[in-house]
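U., I forgot to send this yesterday:
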Amino acid sequence: MGVDDDAALFDLSCTLFVSKTDQTRSITVSFNASLDLFEKKGLIKTTHRFVRLLSQLFLSDQPLYTFSLFLDEEREILRKLNDTHVDYGPIRCAHHHFIKHAQQYPQKLAMVFEDQS
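Result:
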């Protein structure tokens, strides 16, 4: 998966070469892109994604909906960003909090309504 500096005829083109012998089958992928429009780093990432997709298509028996274009490092970043679980403990209603505080502080004023307590 190298990047050649040959002149591109199109903004981005992709060529697939399929070779088959008695024992093996292989697919070679070639990208040709205008380096005025694309950065080499971006093209390399695109190539890795495409190879990942081809691997999932041809080497896996998984259903299509399980396939992903995320690279391993991107998947890890996404996992970390989505790891937002916070344990709030048992959920209590407002009247439970009122009862708890009334029991903890029986001498304090619990509620005032229209000058009544």
